Amino acid sequence: xxxxxxxxxxxxxxxxxxxxxxxxxxxxxxxxxxxxxxxxxxxxxxxxxxxxxxxxxxxxxxxxxxxxxxxxxxxxxxxxxxxxxxxxxxxxxxxxxxxxxxxxxxxxxxxxxxxxxxxxxxxxxxxxxxxxxxxxxxxxxx
Length: 142
What we know:
Blueprint: E1 2-15, E2 29-41, E3 44-54, E4 59-70, H1 74-84, H2 89-113
């Protein structure tokens, strides 16, 4: 199975409240779903998707797009999805992973532009002596 040509077709972002009223704790939910799947040929299908980052009452980011699924059974999978709206877990997992890998980095930039918190936790840099770890070796951070 191969996923290629992931592209966005629509971007919608809204911040619902003024920055002064923004709460300290914000729940951020991610969701991706397949909105349409169309057979191109026996080995290719076009998948249209929607990705949403919801900030509850604070705001929302929505991205729409499409990708090409290449698989020996892609045409059959598209026909099956059209009738049942279900895919095998492995195929669905790979599609949703590709959607997240494309959309989450885009949502980070969009969130920054409209002054929403980033939809992923940013790394924290802490200086000082870290407690020793037993049996683990990792990169040094300065």
